[in-house]
Every structure is written in structure tokens, then in C-alpha cells.
Amino acid sequence: MNNIEEILKEALDKLQSAQLADIENIKVEYLGKKGKITEILKTLSSLSIEEKKKTGSAVNEAKIKLNDAIEAKKKEISNKILEEKMKNEKVDISTAFSFSFPKGHHHIISKTIKDMSDIFVSLGFDVYGGREIETDWYNFEALNIPKDHPARDTQDTFYLENSEYLLRTQTSAAQIHIMEESKPPIKVIVPGRVYRNEATDASHSSIFHQIEGLVVGENITFSELKGTLQLFINRLFGQELDMRFRPSHFQFTEPSAEVDIKCVLCGGKGCRVCKGSGWLEVLGCGMVHPNVFRAVKYDPEKYTGYAFGLGVERFAMLKYGIDDMRVLFENDLRVLRQF
Amino acid sequence: MKISYNWLKDLVDFNLPPQDLCKMLTFLGVETSVVSGGTNWTNVITAKVLDKQKHPNSDHLSICKVNDGTKDYQIVCGAPNVAVGQTVPLALIGAKLPGDFVIKASKIRGVDSEGMICSQEELGLAAHSDGIMVLDEKTLLGKKLEDVLTDIDTILEIEITTNRGDCLSHLGVAREIAAKLQKIPTIPEIKTSKIAEKTLLDIKAKDLCTRYIGCHITGVKVAPSPKWITDKLEVCGIKSINNIVDITNYVMLELGHPLHAFDASTLSGKKVVVRRAEAGEKIATLDGKTHELNEKDLIIADASKPIAIAGVIGGEFSSIKDTTTEVFLEAAVFNPGSVRKTARKLNISTDASYRYERGTSWEIAETASWRALNLILELAGGRAEFREDYNIDENKRAVITLRVEKVSKLLGYDIDEKTIANILRFLGIEIDSKVKDVLIATVPSYRNDIKEEVDLIEEIARIDGYDKIPVLTDFSSASSEKNKLEEPCRLIENLDTSLTGLGFCEAMNYSFCEIKDLDKFYLNYTYKIANPISKENEVLRPSLLPGLMKNFNFNIGQATTDIKLFELGKIFDDKGERKVLGILMAGPVWQSWWKWESSKINPVFDFYFAGGIISNILPSKEFMISDNRTPAKYFHPGKTAAIVYHGKPVGQFGVLRPDVVGDFDGEVIYAEIEVENIEKVYKNKINPYEHIAKFPSVKRDISVVADKSVKFEKIEKIFKNIMRDGGILKDWSLFSVYESEKLGDGKISYSFRLSYRHNDKTLNDNEVNTDISKLLEKLKKDLGITLRN
């Protein structure tokens, strides 16, 4: 018995200091056909049954132990080699950041339109396309803006030559199409491009983008309009922003309101962007004027509705701190790749 | 419009400092801000100059001893007008003057100064002053300056919405203040008297003039106005002319109704006619210009000639001069649209036209007429000879029924009937509440914006305050009936997501082009702008190419070399307004990379790579690239292809002609895809799931030699036909194209990778070889193509 333990100890000692190449030799020396442990089994025949059993199981145990030790040693050595190898493969991470496939980017305006549309869609709005070439009827008359009304002063219009057409000055023009094409309930937004015949500078542009909202039904209230816009603003800026509604006037809504939000840059303390007031005027809205319903042959006794319009560029410029509108349409790739 | 804070105080009793008043008015819908004036300082007191010595180190400074009644101060002063005995405003150390200017203890050229003697300019009381402000000598010393200068006015600027022309006067704004604070405005005393009537009016254009009050005054003395009038005009930015003209302006600022005074002695035939002008009629007006009129313009005329353009501007000839003794005073109501049309056409905007365009009141016209007459008689003397009032029967106050339940139905919160009636009454609206739940409102004529029930509801909301309206966030408004509305297609989103994934950036350009730019691109325009403000806005873009090329040139100019741009926008051509996708690419396909330097991987965009990009972004295999039968003229005729959907072209792409691109070393590729067309044919389409084979495929490469005259399309067709017949050939691709003398004259070699697979078993070599032989036979028989050795 002692013999077995001694032999096992001897083998394990050898294994301790073995290199990868030695391991197979050790295995043969002790566990091979003529290995030292295997040899012991050959001596069993001279033993009593009792002894045979005892020695036999001791030998088997020793075999298993040695085998396990050999496998563990092998694993240990190969791990060590792998570690060593990986250590030598270490990269210089500073060179890993000049990749040759720059990713593409959406334009900041379409990105903003998408962000805004997603919020409205989550509030149950549908998205409507709308056209950019319009008639006076859709852009003005049906919206309760008669010819020779001073309300037209605020919207210098591009007219198309030799035709009755004009370029829409407001996405509100789509309100009329929507109501003509469908029946209440209506709950849509219209993101789109609008045109104003004015010189381009840092804060004016002959084209810009608006999102129009229109909700019509049997129980639509100003209170819901306030709620909708509050939810929209909170989600857009990711924080509860104070809002205030100021009475205003649009020909196609009554009552009408201008909406201010607490300045997102200074938090209301007053800064350059909010001109010290702590508030930013961001959109116009109101309850749909009965004359607009009459123009599309809806019964103003039965239906009420609200509408709102906001300038996409204004929001984008506020959100990203852009101070010159022309930057948006220059399409400098160094700018496009920032957003 | 500029208005005076003090004048408002004369008309309504309120106790709000200017800033608070502005806020209140703004939240009533009249945007108001403080322009200037007011006591915008702290720590400025009254003091007396006791002594003045020349500054030892300066020629223009003096050292003054100033006393506030208890204490002396040494002040270095640079004003030339400072003198012993004057009472002056003294800003103490720590005082704050307009513009956040804080007074500190200082040494001026070596002499201590314990404050500053102020000028009106420094106090924000005047735009410019030449020296220090000198106060009345009886002024008590040591008082706060603001307590002494009680008559200092504050100028406010109001901005009205287009429907509130009635607020364009002090009385108008006072009415708003009164309505909110539940007060009654104090209207100046108006004396009426019996004046002889005489028919000299002839209202011919009855549709455009609904009231005309004329008053003939004789024996007036034209002179400068008294100070209380000129001061008020000055605050409001109106130049003083003479007492008669000033009175008409004063009454307009006070009550809001424009008035006009004629020199009655110049009126030929002693007639005042309100009529449409005759074509070609001319008038020299007060602005020194001569205007030619036509039958669309309303004028005031005497028996022979125009004397004023109604509601816009008076004539020079009939104007009030220093020598005038006879005045004809006009207070009239003209049609807003007509005044606006004429004013716009002649490019004139006057205080009168601005108000007339927004609508004036037949009631206020009468009040204003008496008010001006009273003032003329009081300040210029004379006698009212005749008065004539043309007034039509339709001039009645509007009567509107308001159902109380409609208020909460529209606003979303409950307001009781009593509150509603109270709000409306303080707006000057008469209320009859005899019927339960219904109010009958009689609206004064100056509120021409109140036409129906909803307008009254707005008034209620406005006065009660929009902040009273609750914010309802758990609303239940239903979504639209979708089947009726045009639905946007996901397709566009997919297209631009694919493009950005491939490294393209989205551009956004103006929708306009210059005609001369279009020529460069061989493009024609369909829509021309009738009234462009610059050449850049001449026509609507018929293609996205000019804009994207502009971006290309701009970016090349900024030393950006890899240009991958796309734009999704409307174009406008003979097919109307359509949404298209434009893609422009040029330069290196990818940026250089140190890792690739050794392998020299630096391809630039060419036709084939672009084709790969295009077929990558198309939504299904049903879209194919084929011959471009109607290529746009800006494409290189040999390097363009069409994108086809079931035989119908939906877009095209190609290399731009070198003359279109200009001096750029390389090819620029452009694609224009009709997304709206694709949307139409492809809406709601689904690419169905294809089962993945269980058995492995066998790949084989073959190279063949063909005549160059054989169109590749035909080879492609053979492959496709074989695959369509459902054989074991499942896929093929072209991986090499090779030309060489060794192949023989006019020959070209193509190498294909073929993929074979059986759906039910693993293929063996024999089966594959047999199939390849069949393919080669077919190629040889149909197109004379042979296997390359």
C-alpha cells in the first residue's frame, strides 16, 4: 500500500515542475502499459481476495488522481501560454479611432420633425403629408383670411406666374384638405415645408418647416389643447417645463393663444436667447374658428376642435444652440455629421 | 404704437407700475413693453451746488461742493453748465442708473469724487443731453429724485393683433385695463351743440363709406399747439405741425379714430364728394409725392378734383396752412379692404390707413368729431358754421346670443353665468340676462372683432385669464378615421435609414433655383415665381440635382473629399409637385485608413459602385436596374441606368456629364428616385419568407468568352430563365470581367460563381457537372459563348 502512495507522490512531484513536453512522459511512466502504477496491478494475483480488492481500488484511485492532476497541469500550462500570447498581441488603442466608414446622419430638421412626430403619434395623432403649391382658398380664404385683410401682412407670399397658385405660407393650409377628405373625428399632424417671401438672414428664411396639429370632434376643449401641448413639450425636452398661454389672434382660431415655455437655456433666469425675459415664444394655437368649419361644410354647432402650429427650425435651433438659420441649409458635411 | 403711461392714468384709475401694467396687458393679448422713461434708478437725491472750483489737473472738470440739506459732498463734474446755486440730481455712491451703471467712490485725476451729478440722458429721461439736469430751484433738498419728478412719463410700446384696431388709442388700452380691473374708464367730457346743417356732402361710393361727419369751422387761427398737446404727441412719436393738425392727431391718439382737416377755402364748389377716382386722376399728397389713381381707389373730392385719398393721406393743396382760417373737419368710416388695397398699391402707410385697415367705429367717429371740434374752438377759436352727418341705417350695434353652456364646452371648465355677465359688462358690452342660461349681448361698434358667440367666449377666457383653463392630460379625443387619410409610407423611412447606414448624410436645400443655374444642368423649369425678392427665388426646382451640386461644390471648397449626400424633398415639374429622393456621391468610397495603406484599398465612386448602393437600398428584388431609355440630359449618355419596377421606371441614376460637374477630378454620380411612385406601387407589400434549404450547396466558378457585341442583359436572362425553371442552379453572380488580346479580337471574358443545391438531397459532382454542361450549351447555342480555357 505504501508503495502505491509513494509512487503517486513521486509522480505528482514530477508533475509539479513539469513542462508541457514532459507531461506525456510522466503519463507513460506511471499510467502507461508498463507504467509504475499499472505494474502494481500485475502483482495482484499473488494476493488474497481481500487484499486484491483493497489494492485494486487503491490503484484505481491513484490512477484517477494522477489523471486529474495531469489534466489540470495541462490546462494550467496552456492557459499560461495563451495569456502570454495575448499579452504580446496587445493593440495600441489610440489608433483604433480613425475608422474609414463614417456613419451617415439625418438632417437636423428632419431629425427634429421625426422626434416631434413620434411624440404626437404616441399621443394618438396621424401624420398627413400635404402639398406645397396651394391656392388662395386653401392657404387663406378657407382659413378665414379674406383678401385685403391685414392678417395677410404677416405672411408675405410667393405667387406662381401665370396661375392662381401660390406657395403655402403655413401648414394650416392642409387643415382644409384634411377636413375635406375625411370626417370627424380628426387627429392629425402635418409636418412640412412652408414659404415666406422675405430676405434670408440669421433668423429669417424664405423656406422653413412647421408642424401643424388639428383635432376635431364633438367634445374637444381648450383644456385638452393645453394638456396635449404640455405633454408634447415635456417629452420633447425631457423635463417638466413651465408653459404659459397668452391671448393672441389667428384668423382661423378663436380663442387663440401664443405659447411660451420657460427658457430651456437659462431655466427662466433670463439670458441672451430669451432676451432676459426667461420665456421663449414657441408656438401658436387655438380653437378652430367656426368659419373654418363652415368652409369645409362641418357643423360648427356639433363639432369643436383645436389647431396648433409650431416652427421646427425654432425648436431645433433652441435645442441644439444654433444661432444662424442659414447654417441649416448650407449642408456643410462638417455640420451635417455633428447631429 | 407708442403710448404714454401717464395718459392712460388720466383715462382709467389703476395702481400698477409700468412693468406690471405691461405684463397685465400682455396677458390680455395686447403685447406691451416699456420703451423708455420712468424712474429707472436708485439712490439719486436732490442736492444744491454750494461751490464750484476749477480742477487743478484738468481744463474742463470742476470740483463742486454739493449739499443735500444735511451733508456736503465733493463731486468732480465735467458738465459745462454746472453752476453754484443750482438744484441738481445727485447720484450717491452705490446708486444704480439705467444700463446697470453703478456709481462708485472714485478719484478723478487725483481728486476724490463722492458721487455724480446726473444729466437727463444718464437718468434715461432723454435720448441726449448737453449738460447736467437742473431742477426747479424750489425743489426740496435730500429728497428721492423720483418723488420730486412726479410728472415723468413712461413710454410704452404696444403691439396689437390684427383684429384689435380698437386698441390703437389710449382710450382703447384704458378700456382693456378697465375690463381686467373691473373699473369704468373716464372718457373726456364731450360737449355737443346744435349746429346748422347744410348739404355739402355727396357720398357717391355708399358701399365704401358708411359714415361721414363733416364740420365746417370758420374764423380759426392757426398757431403752434400748447405744450400739453405737443408733449403728448412727442411721447407717441408724432411731429407737431400746427394746432389744427395736432388736434386731429391728438384725438386719434386719445380715442382711436383718424380725422382729417381740410382748408375749406380751397374746396371748389364748396362740395365734398366721396367717390371712386377716375382712371388717371392725380393728386399731390402731404408726403410730397404725386399719385395716379384709378377707379379702385376711394377719394374725397371737391367739385372738380381729389382732395384726399380716403383713409390714407390728405392732398397737399387742401392742407391746413398758417394762413388757413376756414376748416373742414372730417370724421368718417371707410371700408377697411378698400383702404388697404389703395395703401398697399401706393405703398403708403399712415397712422390713419393703419387704423382704417383694421376697422373703425361709427360710434367713435361721432365722439371724435365732437371732441376735435371742441378742442379746435377752444384752442384755435372760430365758430362752427355747419355740421353734416351722413350715417347709414345699418350702423347698429351687433346683438349676439351667448349660451352659457357653450363657454365651458369650448374652454373645458365651468364659469358661472354671473361671472360671465360681469366680465362682458366691464368690456362695455350690454348684457340682457332675462332668459335662463342665455345672455343677449349688445356689442359696442368699436369691437368689430366680436361677431359671433365664439368671439364672446374668447373675451371671457381672455379676461378671466388663460391660466384659469385647466391642463387636461388624460384626454380621450379619438384618432382619425384612417381609411380616408393619405397614410405616410414606411418606405421613405427605410430608404433614408439604409442610406445613413451606408454613410450618407441628409441635406436640405431651398426649393428654389436660378434660371441660369438650370441651364447648366440642361434642366427646364415649369413654375416661375411671379414676385421673387431675389434671383435665387426665380423658379421652383425641377430636380434636386442643382441643390445637391451646390452642396457638392461647397464641401469640396471646404476640403471635404468624400461626398455622400442625399435629400428627400419636393420637386416641381410638368408632372406637378412630387416627392423624390436625390442621392449624390463622389470621391473616395471610404476615407483612407492606415490599416489599409499596405493593401492600397482606396476606390473612388464610379458607376458600378453607385449601382451597388442603389440596388442595396431598394426595398425588394422586384426593383431592377436596366437600360435607361429616357435618360435625363445631365447624365453621361453611356453611363446611366434606369430603376424599374415591373417594367415601370421609378428612377434613374448615372454619372453626371463632365460639363455639368466642372473641374472636378473624378466622376460624380447622381440618382433621382420617385419615392411617391414607389410608395404607390409598393404600399403594404411584403417580401414573403423563403425557406432555407437543409442540404448544402455546391459552388462552382466558370469563365466564359463572349463577343463584346453580346449584351450582358441577354446572358443575365439565360441565368434567370434557368433559375426560374426550378432547377438546381439557385444563385449566380458575376465576379470578374476581363478583356485581353489573348482572348481574340472583340472578345470579353466573364467569370461567374454558380451555386447549386437540391432541396431534398446532397448533390454529387456528376449532377452538378451535367447541369453546368447544359448551361454552357445553352450559352453557346443562343449567344455563341464558349468556355474559356
Task: Provide the fold topology.
The complex is a heterodimer of chains A (339) and B (789).
Chain A: H1 2-16, H2 20-31, H3 36-42, H4 49-88, H5 108-122, E1 126-127, E2 133-135, H6 136-139, E3 165-167, H7 173-181, E4 186-195, E5 207-217, H8 222-237, E6 243-250, E7 253-262, E8 279-288, H9 290-295, E9 304-311, H10 312-320, H11 327-330, H12 333-336
Parallel strand pairs in A: 1-4
Antiparallel strand pairs in A: 2-3, 4-5, 5-9, 6-7, 7-8, 8-9
Helix pairs in contact in A: 1-2, 1-4, 2-4, 3-4, 5-10
Chain B: E1 2-4, H1 5-11, H2 18-26, E2 31-37, E3 42-54, E4 62-67, E5 72-77, E6 87-97, E7 101-102, E8 106-108, E9 111-113, E10 115-117, H3 145-148, E11 154-159, H4 170-181, E12 201-203, E13 209-218, H5 227-235, H6 243-255, E14 260-263, E15 272-276, E16 282-284, E17 290-292, E18 298-301, E19 306-309, E20 313-314, E21 327-334, H7 336-346, H8 351-357, H9 362-379, E22 383-391, E23 398-403, H10 404-411, H11 417-426, E24 430-432, E25 438-443, H12 453-464, H13 490-501, E26 505-506, E27 512-513, H14 515-520, E28 539-540, H15 545-557, E29 563-573, E30 576-586, H16 607-617, E31 623-627, E32 635-645, E33 648-656, H17 658-661, E34 668-673, H18 675-682, E35 698-707, H19 712-724, E36 729-738, E37 747-756, H20 765-783, E38 786-787
Parallel strand pairs in B: 12-15, 26-29
Antiparallel strand pairs in B: 1-11, 2-11, 3-4, 3-6, 4-5, 6-7, 6-10, 8-9, 13-21, 13-22, 14-21, 15-18, 16-17, 18-19, 19-20, 23-25, 24-25, 27-28, 29-30, 30-34, 31-32, 32-33, 33-34, 35-37, 35-38, 36-37
Helix pairs in contact in B: 1-4, 5-6, 6-9, 7-8, 10-12, 19-20
